[in-house]
Amino acid sequence: MSAGASKGDTDRRLGRRALLAGGAAAAVGAAALAREELSRLWWRLPGVEKSRVAGAVDFRGARWVAASSANYRRADRPDDYPVDRVVVHVTQGGYASAVKVFQDPGHRAAAHYIVRRDGRVTQLIRELDVAFHAGNRAYNERSVGIEHEGFVEHASSFTDAMYAASARLTAAVCARYGIPVDREHIVGHAEVPGTDHTDPGPHWDWERYLRLVRKARGAGAV
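RESULT FIELD:
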């Protein structure tokens, strides 16, 4: 499952009041904000935040169930953070329990999606936003996190329906951001630097999964 957020994950950067007052640079003891940092803050100014539709999903057919706003950081990806990774997780529990913890503001972590054993997909955080799912700030900012209902120690958790649905989802994400379909760019939570998690575990069939993702990508999954 998604790791708890690090201190850096929950850093909301400079407050709007400080930015508008022109005192942000002084507050951090710097002469001026870097251009890159300004590009990541522009959408916080009144009137420039990207319009959002309540309940909208990024993957056709997904069900929307909102995670707690404490478990992600609002952003405008890929304009402020390029997206070049998909991180595969396993919930270590059932679907309902995963949703419950992702809606708990004290959990401080959540993924963008959950794929159920029967193949149904739930989206909890917009891909625009930085989900606290990987336990690594840089990876959170650059990736989409996909949870899978089940347990790493149970091969039976990973059903045909789950593999097929998750592959279509990952193919759509890869198409949207131009992410190569390979093991450098589609990784397990255990492979994220600094994590202490083991998911998706030894029973996750990477060869099968990538084959399905490539097939869905070739078929134009959206």
